[in-house]
Amino acid sequence: MELFYSKLDKHIESLDEKFGSKFVIKKAAYNGIILVLKDGCGESSFKLWVHKHFKLVTIGELQVVYGIESNNPVITYEQLYVTIKECHERVEHHGRDKTWKEIKQQYRWIPFDVVVIFLSQCDLCWNRKAFPKPIADKPITSISFLTRIQMDLIDMRSIPDGGFHWILHTKDRFAKFSWAYALKTKEAQPVAEKLLHQFYSFEPPRILQSDNGKIRCKSDKTESLISRKSSMSKRQVIDLYFLTTTISAYYYYYFF
Ligand SMILES: [Zn+2]
Question: Which positions fall inside the Integrase catalytic domain (predicted)?
Fold first, then answer.
């Protein structure tokens, strides 16, 4: 909840003052709205704004502020977290659009930006995104164990464990056998070390394949193939180069 409100406060601060003051309704302003609607008290421009947007609805002994157009209860700044959380859980964390639809149907004065801020700090949604995508999107031919190893890095930054933020996952495409290694960073050196460790224990595969390219070994020569994605940063290219050369050096040592 603290993270949500600190992000929200930062967002409100970044808004134009006039817009920011009415972006969300704090409890004090809510009480001011009730006073205007009940007793007609208040400053004239505030009264104008209140009469344009709000009406008073009596529920039992309570007087509640409703939006005129939507005919839904107004949610104050203080109630935002709990209300959005309830709606988001009701749609079973199914993303922004469903959450927004659920909110709009029932409440007034919850800005769309606030819903986006809420979702950005929802642990469950974050983990769902960060958690394993299928290790290979297209079928890969493999004829025997250790012919082709697919490698992938799983992002665990949202739930780190003792300084470990990544899991290196390697999988034999033929045997469907998997290995997993905890990593503190996803830089080339620690990744290469884990891969080498695996190759010392089992054999190196004929082909090591990752999202960023492949490193292929033939028995008569060592050859590195990198199919660089245009979106790769210079750092990623350097990392990939380091990884490729490290593994290639190993192949060279292993076969010659
Ligand atoms: Zn969620």
Answer: 135-256
